[in-house]
Amino acid sequence: MNSEIAFHIGDQYENWEFDLEINFDLQKTIANKELYLVYNWVSQQKKFLNYRPHSAKLIYYWDILNTVILNFLNNEQAFYNNLNQRLTKKFNNPIIVNKNEDLIYKFKDEEIEYWSILRNDSIIILYGYSKNLERFYNTLLC
User: Fold this and answer.
1) How confident is the model at residue 140 (pLDDT cuts 50, 70, 90)?
2) CA–CA distance, 22 with 95 (Å, rounded to integer)
3) Of the residues 7, 30, 86, 132, which has the maximum number of CB atoms within 10 A of its CB?
4) Can you give the residue range of the structural domain that contains 65?
5) How many CB atoms lie within 10 A of CB 15?
6) Please, are residues 129 and 59 in contact by the beta-carbon 8 Å criterion?
7) How many alpha carbons lie under 13 Å from residue 68 in its C-beta half-sphere?
8) Using one digit for the tens of pLDDT, what is the confidence trace for 65-97?
9) Residues in contact with 110: Cβ distance below 8 Å, sequence separation at least 6, in sequence order
């Protein structure tokens, strides 16, 4: 298990249940609602690649962690470049796209994808199972 990654995709809900609070606002926006639950992390923020985010949202499918959204209030280009360099060292070269005025670096590690998103007001790390990231980006972050 990689200790530089704050939350590990596939972890059980029971690992963190006392550190989570249901996010009813975002819960309403997930397409088809299926069996996904969105939680806010309410304990001290865990580090991602040695950086502590401002906030974290964990999305579970049934009781398995499926997707994580980390929000960094620092939106400086130097911080974003440094974060992407660290991701490139871990996961090799990214695919770079512009979408909805966001600059996105997409990294892939087997079935898990990591998206590093630069916005006007923040930097977001979105990671989880590849098949769901596009949907959660479109429903929760747009």
Assistant:
1) confident
2) 33
3) 7
4) 13-141
5) 13
6) no
7) 27
8) 999 999 999 888 999 999 999 999 998 889 999
9) none
Question: 1 lies in a domain?
Answer: no
Residue 128: how many other CB atoms lie within 10 Å: 24
Give me the number of domains the chain comprises: 1
Strands (E), the chain: 20-22, 36-41, 55-61, 64-72, 95-99, 102-109, 112-118, 123-129
Q: Measure the CA–CA gap between 116 and 78, rounded to whole angstroms.
A: 13
* CATH code, domain with 20: 3.40.1000
**Between 142 and 103, the higher pLDDT residue:** 103
Q: Which stretch of DSSP H or E encloses residue 81? A: helix 77-91
- pLDDT-derived band at 60, boundaries 50, 70, 90: very high
User: From residue 28, how far is each of 2, 13, 35, 71 by CA, in Å?
Assistant: 32, 20, 12, 20
What tens digit of pLDDT does each residue of 9-38 get?
999 999 999 999 998 877 666 656 567 888
d(CA 67, CA 69): 7
CB-CB contact of 114 with 104 (8 Å): no
